[in-house]
């Protein structure tokens, strides 16, 4: 089992998703101005005229879940060699999602580490709105919708009530997307359609996720899900940093088992079209020195 895996998310976003440009205004004037800076790196206040090109909550985090199988964790911790070996033999990968982390969201912290939430209620989705229809039909994004259904999956860790994946998408945009000033409707020239910014937020989250294939990063260092051993947390973090400009990546655990990864960035320009520069994690890991990486 530990030597065979699917390679997923292998097409860089720059080649795949950027084919269809985001319909926001150009930031060229900002980049040529004396105010040009990455988020959290400015030394003077940014004029309102450039608000669509500079995020005030400028630490951007692409966050991912590893929704491991709790029953397999119990077997791994049982110290029953025969049971562990049997479970390893019988485990099969029938879907590439089993060998992929999944999307949690795209978050924006202030430069001091605090964060805004639900900043603009008029821009939020209402529970009564049909996101399937909005994404797939109204904005003609069936491929985006199908990818989200497969790789943006709700679980207990998200703390989103009623458990559905579409509820997670709604929650993530309402909580975080509405707080991104470069996503405001005023940043979309021409005729703006309600929820246009939200659909492009979803596109961007998927694009960033495809550029950060955590499972493949770990596999490249010989780190695979298994019941037979634990890994050093430092080895996990080194493997991820090697693929994130040697910047520290947040690793989250529950019951000593990897279940979340957060990649931190500063941003140059708009959330949709800007340059995401890797940044050391500002969060404290919730993992012990040796961790389980349990199959899904």
Describe the structure.
With 296 residues, this protein is an alpha+beta fold. It has nine helices and seven strands. Helix 4 (131-138) packs across helix 5. The longest helix is centred in the C-terminal third of the chain and has 15 residues, at 196-210. It is globular, with a radius of gyration of 20 Å. The two termini are 13 Å apart. The relative contact order is 0.21.
Q: Summarize this, please?
A:
The chain is α+β, with helices and mostly antiparallel strands and 296 residues long. The protein is 27% helix and 14% strand. Strands 1, 2, 4, 5 and 6 form a five-stranded antiparallel beta sheet that branches. It has a two-stranded antiparallel sheet with strand order 3-7.
Total helical elements:
9
CATH uppermost class: Alpha Beta
Oligomeric state of the chains? single chain
CATH topology: Ribonuclease Rh, Chain A
Strand content: 5-15%
User: What's the main sheet like?
Assistant: 5 strands, antiparallel
Shape field: globular
Q: Encode the helix/strand succession as letters.
A: HEHHEHHHHHEHEEEE
Low-confidence stretches: 1-19
Helical residues, percent: 25-40%
CATH superfamily: Ribonuclease T2-like
Average pLDDT: 92
Number of domains: 1
Enzyme class: lyase
Organism: Suhomyces tanzawaensis NRRL Y-17324
Protein name: ribonuclease T2
GO molecular function: ribonuclease T2 activity; RNA binding
């Amino acid at each position: 089992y530990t030597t065979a895996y699917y390679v997923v998310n292998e097409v860089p976003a720059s080649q795949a998703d950027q084919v269809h440009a985001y319909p926001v205004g150009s930031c060229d004037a900002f980049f040529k101005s004396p105010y040009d800076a990455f988020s959290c790196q400015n030394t003077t206040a940014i004029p309102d005229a450039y608000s669509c090109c500079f995020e005030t909550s400028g630490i951007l985090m692409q966050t991912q879940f590893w929704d491991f199988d709790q029953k397999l964790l119990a077997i791994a911790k049982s110290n029953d060699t025969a049971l562990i070996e049997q479970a390893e033999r019988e485990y099969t990968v029938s879907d590439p999602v089993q060998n992929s982390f999944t999307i949690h969201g795209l978050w924006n912290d202030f430069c001091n580490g605090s964060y805004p939430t639900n900043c603009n209620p008029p821009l939020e989705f209402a529970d009564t709105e049909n996101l399937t229809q909005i994404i797939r039909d109204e904005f003609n994004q069936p491929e985006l919708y199908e990818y989200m259904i497969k790789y943006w999956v709700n679980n207990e860790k998200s703390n989103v009530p009623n458990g559905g994946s579409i509820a997670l998408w709604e929650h993530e945009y309402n909580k975080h997307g509405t707080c991104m000033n470069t996503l405001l409707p005023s940043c979309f020239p021409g005729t703006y359609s309600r929820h246009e910014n939200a659909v492009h937020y979803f596109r961007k989250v998927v694009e960033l996720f495809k550029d950060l294939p955590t499972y493949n990063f770990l596999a490249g260092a010989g780190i695979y899900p298994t019941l037979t051993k634990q890994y050093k947390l430092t080895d996990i973090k080194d493997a991820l940093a090697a693929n994130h400009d040697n910047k520290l990546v947040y690793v989250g655990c529950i019951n000593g088992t990897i279940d979340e990864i957060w990649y931190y960035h500063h941003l140059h320009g708009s959330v949709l079209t800007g340059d995401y520069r890797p940044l050391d994690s500002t969060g404290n890991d919730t993992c012990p020195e040796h961790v389980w990486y349990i199959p899904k």
